[in-house]
Amino acid sequence: MSTLEIKDLQASVLLDDENSKQILKGVNITINSGEVHAIMGPNGSGKSTLASTIAGHPKFRVDSGSVTLDGENVLDMSVDERARAGLFLAMQYPVEIPGVTTSNFLRSAKTAVDGEAPSLRTWTKDVKAVAEQLKMDPAMIQRNVNEGFSGGEKKRMEIMQLELLKPKMALLDETDSGLDVDALRVVSEGVNRAKESNDMGVMLITHYNRILRYIKPDYVHVFNDGRIVEQGGPELAVKLEEEGYDKYVAAAAGR
Amino acid sequence: MTDVTNANDTVISDILEKNPELEGIGNYEYGWADPDVAGASARRGLNEDVVRDISAKKNEPEWMLNMRLKALKFFDRKPMPTWGADLSDIDFDNIKYFVRASEKQAQSWEDLPGDIRDTYEKLGIPEAERSRLVAGVAAQYESEVVYHQIREDLEEQGVIFMDTDTALREHPEFFEEYFGTVIPVGDNKFGALNTAVWSGGSFVYVPKGVHVEIPLQAYFRINTENMGQFERTLIIADEDSYVHYIEGCTAPIYKTDSLHSAVVEIVVKKNARVRYTTIQNWSNNVYNLVTKRAIAHEGATMEWIDGNIGSKVTQKYPAVYMTGEHAKGETLSIAFAGEGQHQDTGSKMVHIAPNTSSSIVSKSVARNGGRSAYRGLVQVREGAKNAKSNVVCDALLVDTVSRSDTYPYVDIREDDVSMGHEATVSRVSEEQLFYLMQRGIAEEEAMAMIVRGFVEPIARELPMEYALELNRLIELQMEGSVG
Amino acid sequence: MSNTATNTAPGTTTAEEDLVEGVRTDEARIAIPGMTQEGEKLATEHSTATDEREVEVALPKGAKKPAGNSRAERTASYDLADFPELTGREEDFRFTPLKRLKGLHSDELTAEAPAVTVSGSDLVRVETVGRDDARVGSAGIPEDRLSANAWAHFREATVITVPREAEIADTVLVEIKGSHTDPAAQHLIVDAQAFSKARIVLHHSGTAVVSQNIEFLVGDSANLTVVTLQEWQDQGTAHASAQHGKLGRDARFKHVSVNLGGDTVRVTPAVRYTGPGAEVEMYGLTFVDDDQHLESRLFVDHSQPNCVSRVTYKSALQGRGAHGVWVGDVLIRPEAEGTDTYELNRNLILNDGPRMDSIPNLEIETGLIAGAGHASTTGQLDSEHLYYLMSRGIPEVEARRLVVRGFLFEILQQIEDEGIEARLRDVVEAELSNADH
């Protein structure tokens, strides 16, 4: 049983050497193993910043508040330490790494996260099984990391890593974006499998409720202007789909 | 899917794992200096007397002295090139043009003076010879080749591999015919300088139809401060032959600069193939200004593999003049420019005969304020119908303070040609590092992974031990590159 | 090897002869044609090379290109008056034969536009709307006089809508058929809403003198493929088509332009991004015959982070007076960090006579990009390929066709509609057999 606890988190984006702009204005959220929390909000509300800040992206600076994983202070850790502690960020725009094969990358990451190299025989089998379930072309493993991958292939690759690295907490940043229905289904099944097999907690960030038809949220948080403005169950997502975010945006503007 | 893991990309990390002694050496690990007895007494500066003195010490024929003196005139007359790196700090009056480190060339490592032997042991050269990774070795220390060996079976087939001074004495006919024909006396300022004061270097002759399957290796070492090393290499590959020649270079770290200005001439005869690999790792106080050129006759293939890792300034553009039909020229070039380094490298391909083809692939990495430049020329002369050429140059910038430039010159005087040119510049981004680190990989390893990936297309063309060497150098280069 | 010490080439014995101990040290010593004792002539050319031949690609953060020829500064306006009368000397018209445009740039475009019929799927909505509809002009602004002239004169627009989350497997076919040669203006809009997926083929045929503006709205996460086929009758047709794509966040847009028929055809596709993460692929296949002028000028305007663009255009040219033009402008604005772009143009000259102008332009205003590159090649058939095939017994005519097919069909495969691909393959085959006699 793991708990990711975010308390009064305030953070800014670093624009250049001198200037920054506050994005997160006091976020509180607690995620336990096995729970799915959907964070929904309009574009530019800061929900992706929340995920990147928790993972330690250098573009963001924490101004106050705390993030702990099972009581350990996440904010004191470097990016790779956070990953090794069990935090996984499925990125919105995974980057290409030319010349580095996916298979080499996956094995390096697995070795780093586990602290020892995986046994070659079982590892090969695991990679193969996950690739098949995600309906990925096996040849992709021999290609360079994300190089020449389509948007959908990149998202599958993120979920493949999620399944192989077995983190305690997954932060899924707009994983549904750019996916057609078939790909969305495959990717969602992958997330659900990872959640079931190691009782993973999930923070699912999305603009549209489409993905929530495939990954059922336990909690829905509406995010606007750097904070959570409303919370509820799955029914809140349906309401948002019908009514949109206008009411929250207007309320924030009037504040 | 039967094989999800790629065997190749494990090899290098596995070997490093098994050889921990390869790790953790200082940033430039070849920077030690031996006691400098010979160098201390050597004379500085250049004039006609110096040239005559070098020639006399070598007991050369008069025509060679004549050519040296002619070259000296060219050198004096030609202006310093200003189109590339800043060369204004080179003080020609302070350079020692000839340093004799050992009275006699050794046939076994044991016969060498202790200091010099130790140096080569540290560089791993005798070990490579013992483990038969090379078919012949020439080791140049200061101005002369101090050790030389070639496998007997090659000698029996008529392959000649010896230092250039000895070759001039023992096989003058080759020199009378070829010396200075590929790179003329006054070709450029530094080529002229080399011709005036050359000493040492390798001479290789491969007879018709002979394939030298294992590489010949030369190793160049400068020990004296303010030394000028001017080796001269001449390679003749006769019809249908093949040879792979590898050279490596290192020097100690001094406060003031040394100069390395070599000339390499290669004649690749009909249907022969020559591959010339350089891994240059001079210390950061060496000006490396080298002229390398090959003539490829009908159906011949010349391949330059040019790795530039060290030096303060390198200006080097290995060239292939394709004078026979269906001749081929290829260059794979890789350069690392770190702090205070300027790597101005590339290649020249000159199509003179019809149906000739050339290809240049260049990769450069600049970090920590270093400058890398690709400077290349593709020329298709009138009459070189159906010439084909393809140029790809990629640059990787590791940070925002480094710089990369591309100067691709193209000069086509024939209609019926096919030309391709591609250039890309990319940067190791915060996003790439973040991505790898978010998967648990530590920062320095992540950086090294990215750089290794970038040079991978060239690394795979190198012999295994050189690919390993390159990878190790990348790791060393990346140490301390992240804060 | 020869052991003659003098190395005298026949006929080179001159007064300058310079022998020392019987060894030549004069000019005749040099083994490379064109080289002198003074060195290669190239070396001096190098040192005096002017800066304009040098491509500097250092990318300091926040670097700005000097003002002047930047694509970012080109006039964009709905008002025809903002575009001066053309002289043919303008940068973007210097290859276009103005006389052959039959007034598209200068006349009132009042004739009836080619007829539009839409078929293939019930899921799309087709409307005809007036100039005041909110969607008109929402994806693009005219950037040259031809487009502005069409804007000034069109009366109504056809709007094709792919509704939100609708995924349409069948190809939507839009027939655009011309029946006369009086100058006309035309306006079309394709609105692909969020999460929708569709393939739309615009098939231009018949005879026309027409200037078009076509707008493509590609919503968030929508996936739109557009194939624009220019298969006009060769005689009499002049066609200018300004095609404007506007992409939402994470949208995917594939644009395939196939230019086969028409006397003078100028297609100018432009793509703009309004959100991060969008991907554009642009493909072109142009087959230029005797006296045809087929021109493609495209523009990718990277103004958003993390977007991708890939451009692959190929042409084959044959016959006297065949003129192909390809200009590819890619602009990476300072805010477009993480951009990944590559442009490729390959042209095959099949016989003597054609002219091809190929100009890739890449402007980079930020150093923080994932990658940027371009390549352009123009040449004749690869004789090695031909030789190989012929050595296997394939006659030359057939070998040529095989090689050309391989070259061109790669683009047709991007249409991903087997029926249309098969038909176009036949058209290309027919063009090829024209060249053989």
From TrEMBL, chain A:
Entry-linked PROSITE patterns: ABC_TRANSPORTER_2
Alphabetical list of Pfam families matching this protein: ABC_tran
GO molecular function, a single term: ATP binding
Keywords per UniProt: ATP-binding, Nucleotide-binding
Top-level taxon of origin: Bacteria
Residue ranges occupied by any ABC transporter domain in the UniProt entry: 4-250
CDD domains tied to this protein: ABC_FeS_Assembly
The keyword Magnesium is annotated on this UniProt entry: no
Family: Belongs to the ABC transporter superfamily. Ycf16 family.
PANTHER family, alphabetized: ABC TRANSPORTER I FAMILY MEMBER 6, CHLOROPLASTIC
NCBIfam families assigned to the protein according to its UniProt record, in alphabetical order: sufC
Protein name as it appears in the record: Fe-S cluster assembly ATPase SufC
The species this protein was found in: Kocuria soli
Name of encoding gene: sufC
UniProtKB/TrEMBL annotation, chain B:
Domain of life: Bacteria
Pfam families assigned: SUFBD_core, SufBD_N
SUPFAM superfamilies to which the protein is assigned, alphabetical: Stabilizer of iron transporter SufD
TM ranges: none
Domain SUF system FeS cluster assembly SufBD N-terminal stretches: 152-217
InterPro entries: Fe-S_cluster_assembly_SufBD, SUF_FeS_clus_asmbl_SufB, SUF_FeS_clus_asmbl_SufBD_core, SUF_FeS_clus_asmbl_SufBD_sf, SufBD_N
GO biological process: iron-sulfur cluster assembly
Residue ranges of domain SUF system FeS cluster assembly SufBD core in the record: 220-454
UniProt-listed NCBIfam families: sufB
Assigned protein family: Belongs to the iron-sulfur cluster assembly SufBD family.
UniProt name for this protein: Fe-S cluster assembly protein SufB
Native organism: Kocuria soli
Gene behind this protein: sufB
